[in-house]
Amino acid sequence: xxxxxxxxxxxPGSNPELVAAVSEAGGLGVVQPxxxxxxxxxxxxxxxxLIKSLTSKPFGVNFTIVPNKKYAKRMEEWxxxxxxxxxxxxxxxxx
Length: 95
Fold this sequence. Notes:
Layout: E1 6-7, H1 16-24, E2 28-31, H2 33-39, H3 44-54, E3 59-65, H4 69-84, E4 89-94
Parallel strand pairs: 1-2, 2-3, 3-4
Helix pairs in contact: 1-3
């Protein structure tokens, strides 16, 4: 990132357009998968591709680590998709 700004993976602030705009401006946009899929209604892979269509700059994905098997399975699927789509930066946090 050229500018020392990270757009945190805030739940309501993880729409693909904002993530891409921050990265495009030289910061590091970080998307929160639950926000992108459930709040904004994007298929996860399609949302990542939308971000990539709006910027050629790097962006990251945040994964929340929680002791829930169903959620953990979804996070693993989203991690695999992220890697497949070329995402190189990941944040994790404990929910």
